[in-house]
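Morning - adenosine monophosphate inputs below, output right after.
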Amino acid sequence: MKIVKGINELKGYLVDSKRNGKRIGLVPTMGALHKGHLSLVERCVRENDICVVSVFVNPTQFNDKHDLETYPRTLEADCALLESAGCDFVFAPSVEEMYPEPDTRTFDFGTVMQVMEGAKRPGHFNGVAQVVSKLFYIVEPDNAYFGEKDFQQIAVIRAMVKQLQIPVQINACPIVREADGLALSSRNTRLTPALRQKAPLIARTLQESKALAATKSVREVIDYVVNTLNADPDLEVEYYEIVDGDSLVSIQDWKDTSYAVGCVTVYCGEVRLIDNIKY
Ligand code: AMP
């Protein structure tokens, strides 16, 4: 496994592989890797000849300066995990390497980038599109892998590659959870032990709401999730929406879609956690 900091250096390594028709897979990450990330990497290794994992805390997707400053950075440990997972190249550029000049591009992918996280985190998906498009131009992967934990992000990336006509296959990977149901996240390390005990209530409530969906209306299921979580003094729901999983438009009735997905954001103390469930 090679750890590469420069764009041209990485391109130099990949050029021969491309010429020889090798399939290249990319897993974009911000590091602080856990088993959720590794499930993407393992799939990338299985399905491609060459696996590239980028580790880059992208400043342009943070709308909260404190979140950017405190985001965990653990490159050495990340590289050890990636090596055992069979990764070929870790691309870990500096901010200057990725943004030698400010990226002034503004994207408009319509609804998928405006709702939910798009509304609550202004500029977040624009920053995601900036960095992921750059990574796609640098690596030119055949396949890219994203986790369904960031459900809306996948819809944004799909819209981006369609609009920009980038020839890459986008692969969605299931959420990896702790034994108690909590979705793995780099931000979980910020939970105090007491809050860590509370956080699994999010996944548990979503799971319970799935059983209710058979007999209750969309509105009733939303109210159940919001009220159950907010009943805990340490949890505060920012939004819970049940949407069509492709368009991300909110549904009013279960009959509106055959692919209903509930997306939640909850503050657990100061820590902002997201999760989702397919109905
Ligand atoms: P991040 O480093 O948080 O930007 O995440 C990098 C990639 O890993 C994204 O595509 C995430 O959706 C994915 N990911 C993060 N946590 C999980 C998880 N618990 N299960 C599956 N994928 C995940």
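Note: The longest helix spans residues 124-139.

O.
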